[in-house]
Design goal:
- Six copies of one chain form a homohexamer.
- Chain A is of the alpha/beta class.
- Chain A contains ten helices and ten strands.
- The radius of gyration of chain A is 18 Å and the shape is globular.
Amino acid sequence: MPPRYRPADSLASPRFTGIRTFARLPHVQATADVDVAVVGLPFDTGATYRVGARFGPEAIRSASALLRPFNHELGVAVFDVLSVIDYGDAAVVPGFIEPSYAAITALLQPLAAAGVITLGLGGDHSIALAELRALAAVHGPLALVQFDSHGDVWDCYYGTQRYTHGTPFRRAVEEGLLRPERSIQLGMRGPLFAASDLQDARDLGFTVMTTTEVLRHTPEAIGALVRATVGDAQAFLSFDVDFIDPAFAPGTGTPEIGGPTSHQGLQLLRACTGIDWVGADVVEVLPALDHAQLTAQLAAQVAYEFLSLVAHRRSAGDART
Amino acid sequence: MPPRYRPADSLASPRFTGIRTFARLPHVQATADVDVAVVGLPFDTGATYRVGARFGPEAIRSASALLRPFNHELGVAVFDVLSVIDYGDAAVVPGFIEPSYAAITALLQPLAAAGVITLGLGGDHSIALAELRALAAVHGPLALVQFDSHGDVWDCYYGTQRYTHGTPFRRAVEEGLLRPERSIQLGMRGPLFAASDLQDARDLGFTVMTTTEVLRHTPEAIGALVRATVGDAQAFLSFDVDFIDPAFAPGTGTPEIGGPTSHQGLQLLRACTGIDWVGADVVEVLPALDHAQLTAQLAAQVAYEFLSLVAHRRSAGDART
Amino acid sequence: MPPRYRPADSLASPRFTGIRTFARLPHVQATADVDVAVVGLPFDTGATYRVGARFGPEAIRSASALLRPFNHELGVAVFDVLSVIDYGDAAVVPGFIEPSYAAITALLQPLAAAGVITLGLGGDHSIALAELRALAAVHGPLALVQFDSHGDVWDCYYGTQRYTHGTPFRRAVEEGLLRPERSIQLGMRGPLFAASDLQDARDLGFTVMTTTEVLRHTPEAIGALVRATVGDAQAFLSFDVDFIDPAFAPGTGTPEIGGPTSHQGLQLLRACTGIDWVGADVVEVLPALDHAQLTAQLAAQVAYEFLSLVAHRRSAGDART
Amino acid sequence: MPPRYRPADSLASPRFTGIRTFARLPHVQATADVDVAVVGLPFDTGATYRVGARFGPEAIRSASALLRPFNHELGVAVFDVLSVIDYGDAAVVPGFIEPSYAAITALLQPLAAAGVITLGLGGDHSIALAELRALAAVHGPLALVQFDSHGDVWDCYYGTQRYTHGTPFRRAVEEGLLRPERSIQLGMRGPLFAASDLQDARDLGFTVMTTTEVLRHTPEAIGALVRATVGDAQAFLSFDVDFIDPAFAPGTGTPEIGGPTSHQGLQLLRACTGIDWVGADVVEVLPALDHAQLTAQLAAQVAYEFLSLVAHRRSAGDART
Amino acid sequence: MPPRYRPADSLASPRFTGIRTFARLPHVQATADVDVAVVGLPFDTGATYRVGARFGPEAIRSASALLRPFNHELGVAVFDVLSVIDYGDAAVVPGFIEPSYAAITALLQPLAAAGVITLGLGGDHSIALAELRALAAVHGPLALVQFDSHGDVWDCYYGTQRYTHGTPFRRAVEEGLLRPERSIQLGMRGPLFAASDLQDARDLGFTVMTTTEVLRHTPEAIGALVRATVGDAQAFLSFDVDFIDPAFAPGTGTPEIGGPTSHQGLQLLRACTGIDWVGADVVEVLPALDHAQLTAQLAAQVAYEFLSLVAHRRSAGDART
Amino acid sequence: MPPRYRPADSLASPRFTGIRTFARLPHVQATADVDVAVVGLPFDTGATYRVGARFGPEAIRSASALLRPFNHELGVAVFDVLSVIDYGDAAVVPGFIEPSYAAITALLQPLAAAGVITLGLGGDHSIALAELRALAAVHGPLALVQFDSHGDVWDCYYGTQRYTHGTPFRRAVEEGLLRPERSIQLGMRGPLFAASDLQDARDLGFTVMTTTEVLRHTPEAIGALVRATVGDAQAFLSFDVDFIDPAFAPGTGTPEIGGPTSHQGLQLLRACTGIDWVGADVVEVLPALDHAQLTAQLAAQVAYEFLSLVAHRRSAGDART
């Protein structure tokens, strides 16, 4: 029996027609017969530099019209395997982080409880804490696989501010939402505040690899390292588009030059097969600074690759792992 | 009893949340309890110069998130009077004008037959012919009120091409869809192909006023002239955004400098009270050349003013007329 | 004796050289021999739609390099009359409105106490409340002259949020910072949430004129009305760039089409002579959506016209009033 | 007998086809049977602020593809009256003003000597001196009709630099190329260096009107003033696009907000009938800062209106004058 | 004897002067003494998503002003070996694919018959069918070397539409214009409609390599594979700019992230020495979405590399092969 | 004792606050206790194609707000080792290269004489000659390490122009400012004027490597080659942003596609440890064509890497060399 919810067929109706949902999927607020729910999390008050990722979900949905159903690299017909919906957005409160966190968690927790994998479209990276609160409440502490140029494990900004897009993963560890020894951060680069920045993440228990270290290995080797780190833990994928070089992702809040190409980034992501994903997000898409939808299309493809990884594991032959 | 279909309240959920529909209205494909249906008509193969208006409906929907429900200038609470939906888009066929016309007409005619006023979001101006075919099939020949810098009554392009965005209103007259003596074109300007260009429209029976002539009168006087021309005929409003100066509407296909300001344009439109509208469109929004959503927001507001004119006539005191 | 602090001379060193300060003025943090201090207030967490005005002060300073010292329209050599400095920015806390208000007020109040007129560069309009707290603490309640397309006197957003860029002037009245009967709002337009929106401001005691009403009068008549309203009260000028049509000011957070041209706007502002200004701001410049510095240059000129109004009143012949 | 050189017909071949020449005219380097030669003058080393007008001629040619042959406002079929060519560009020397002046003058003087009216596409305004040297060498001192927000009659920049885009008309008077008492400058605005700036131009003999003064009169009254000033002198039209407000002409080097709209600008220009033009230029188009070709299209239309004024005078019924 | 037609020398006249032709070559419509004719094919009605490649030839010509005559990588002084002209554009009919095909074929076939190699500047990829019709009519079926992220061998769009930019190479095989066993497609990537998409091209007889496969080999190895595939057949090079990652070529209609860099792309192209080229095109340049001419400059360089490959083969020492 | 001059702390005050100086360093015009002075050199009259690098220093300063103090790749806390200031700009004379050279040299020579390393922010590459005049006057002839896609050793442009951005290093050799046998040029690519172009630089004594050659080696090997070439000579680093592919640096004057990625570029630069730098520049940043500050951020990072190289050598353990 084919999945209940599937995208519109762009060989029948042009992909530029219709209300914009992710990948031309149905906009439904349901959990029955749903494998994955795409949810917009348009919150950006956590940003410390450029701001505007509240328009990220709209932009990613628009760019996702170009997606097609068969992932040749992973050999999987994504929407033949998974029933996927666009659930809409959380009713965040711009300017106020705590009620926004509450709104995000309140929306996601019932989805997780119903066995639905959540795929958040950000929004700045501060939203990850709210997502992890929702998922850990259902699944217990999770493994984290984070692609990002920044570790986002600082303690405070401006003296006393504990909730920003630079702090969510330290908070998540403190709140017991993550299993640090099962977690890995990939891609750190750019000038740091201090020599201790990367060590701090390692002290929390995370495995940490800089961009330079990542690019010294093949994607396959990195995929194996990720699998070895995560093991059989339930895992959350957090993909900050600033992991990729800003030439490929200009529309973002805190760009760091010197990053991987989008080809390298996709190959790395596709290598992360064999993992028991329960949720994911793609964050820090800032459309006002994007050009020709480069960043939005990258984010849409990252979301699609996550769906593909889930479909790949569920389908009979998970050949790579 | 309040209208069945109403917009989301932007004082409750932020206007940048949710799937983008026109004015945050429900996306419904129904006719019961519907006064006006907004329909995307993303077709641009009729364009003879810059092209890309197929993305116009998406852009207008995005910009329309800024609309609020009370029109102070006309004194009407639009969505307290009218039940309005976003019906979605016609499944046009890019590159092929005749099947696209068929698709548009097939979508609109049942709406018109059900007594629903249609409000098309273009798309290039060639779509007007398909809209008029649908509406005239139900209502008989219509009066036309056209705001535009070009008359769009040329006969052929490139020798023999009869269907382009420069020809729809000549075709509509030929097909008996319009009542030319009840029709008026406002805003012609820019260099012409020949001295006969304006006379041709007059020979078809239209009243024609250039931008220079329009701007020599008050909006109230123009409104009175429009009412006098249309009389009690059922009427179609066709608003090409190039009626307004391109500084206010840069994202369009065939810009003509030297036009009215957006303030002047809105005042002219608001003066067209007291008319029995059965349909409208706003066309030639080309997002790839827009900036900061100027053009899309203008088009969204034009659509909103049309809704306001309809609501104004339906509400008890149509004070101006 | 000429003023102590003056701009660099752009006939001697090119205007594109040097660290960017407002109008190429000295960057000094002093009060002695200072008539007016320009202060950046780069806070935008109060924005409810587009966000990014935290980069407004940088953009206004950059565009202000084009300013020259003689205002021909008012007949005043601004920097021969006034000693003006660029004081730098308040250390706001992005994402957190209350400590940001505290930082702004803490910076401005000593300036006001030292007799320095403050000229704030925003930032979103929420900053006006912090400015008014600082100035009213020194001067007592002030008259307000507000150019804006929105009244910004709503009560709450999203249920319970009292501090946003849509609420500062209601809060200011509640806190006793304004003399509403001496205050005037000019330029309201665009769709409203409800028929009561304008009446609410009038109920607070403000005089309110819509854009349509303003444009029906000459600038001189509006200037006379402003003077009659303010009388001899000490006054604060708050200029939201969305007062002007977005074709002239695309880089702003909540644009409303159908506004005055920049020529009309400047003429209106220049007509507000004869008023005892103690402070001003120009707000809602959002550079990521600006083009060719249109908005930033407009804001820089508005700030310059404010300086000119102050200089005009201080110079011997205040001819217009 | 129809003119020898005429544009391609855009109803036969699409206007976006072919090598870009001005108005789709033939690219010919000839003088026989030529009434007007359009010449690109891509020099911008005279610019004191933003630079890049060397790409102005390319941009104006591109935008001019939208022009059509009949000017309805002046009632003249331009290319039925005039034989016009695109002569190509002067081989200026970027970075070096004196050899560039020599190259421009060497190209234009033989055209003028052959009785050809020259229409220069700039380039920054410094080129006007080279044009006037060429034309005055043939025709003697000329009347100047200058639309501009700046008078460009300063003496020196940076101490001793006499040749910049801020000085050409003072130099032209000093070199005896102009008849100041027959010359008029229209549109000055923006902050000035000193109170004497406008008086300096008047002291040179020019009639000077600010933007504010111009906009207090009808276009017809300004046209009459221009005719009265110029009388029967041979005249040069110099149109700096910064005469128009930068919302309509963002791509320019020294924008001044608060200017006329493009509608006002065109009406003023069209009112300048009845003058014996021997040359013209349109300058300060800076494409890197343009948007959607707004500025380039404005400049193309200004050039077209100049052709129309020449054609209008040459055709039998010069009805307005 | 040096070639008859050569570019202007940019050390003599600045490269930003003159009417824009490809590489500053003469605009001539001739075949005598011509080795290669560059022809604009500004047709984009075949595009199924973003549209606007009709302005591609203009943009490529503009960017090509930066080209210089010596290709160091291939060691060839291109314009010492080849006589090259810019022939102008085909008079396509926007909106109508069949008469446009006829116009393209009618223009190219006589050039091919005269022994001139044609180098088409697109335009969307649908034009390739018309080019192949012209060349195959003269030369017989050709080998195809296609750099592209999409195979463009789908059968129909929207049910029954057989002529779009997604179908030309299937049509070309059906019409007997290609030798599939001598043809190779390089660079396929991105989500597919179905698992069969790549197999369909292989079933037609083409050799197909995905981007991932191409990037696993050295450029030299790919060059050898191309040579082995083509053999001594007469060959057509079709280069869709979406072969390259959209960070390097944002201005295109159907971007696919994860592609080669421009360095990789050029090295691959330069490796294709030793082939008997009879024609080429570079397609899908969509200037409205380009930035800083990135895409146009890439396309210009691709065209230049094709000229270099032809010159390399014709010059005495074709060292690589 | 910590360095006297240090950047503001972005964990205390947001990085978007304050007057823009390089890396939030103090704007001081001093030499005491200063190790490195950053100096803006906003001159662009030497540019032969696109122009506008006069705004480069402003853009680099703006983007440099993102820099943080610890360079993880080189393992150095830059501002714990070095006292760095932003000295402001040279008062260049736009349009006139010789007085501009004089102004630059006059500013830099006293800094060099005081033992301060100078770090120039361009401006076009012509400024390098003025910098080298200042530094060689103090230090004697220098080694040059030049990252650039062009050698900039042409002799003349346009017949006789000896001072442009294409000629500075030939002039520097002629003037005895460089030690060619200790100098290396890295990254040449793009079409050349003639086969002799690269040989000319080698004939001057420079080591020259093309982009293709550079990318065939590891960064470490290139670093070793640079060290071997320079030896113990005092050296000047000149980094033209067009060394990097224009996808990563679109805002530049003479882009050449096919360049290194920013990751490759940074790795190459970081490998150049162990050299006795006395000065550096980063040039050809043209903000009007930049996007999302890509180019400006790259240039800021290059400047930061230079500071890091200096700090690395000065700190105890220069581990790599």
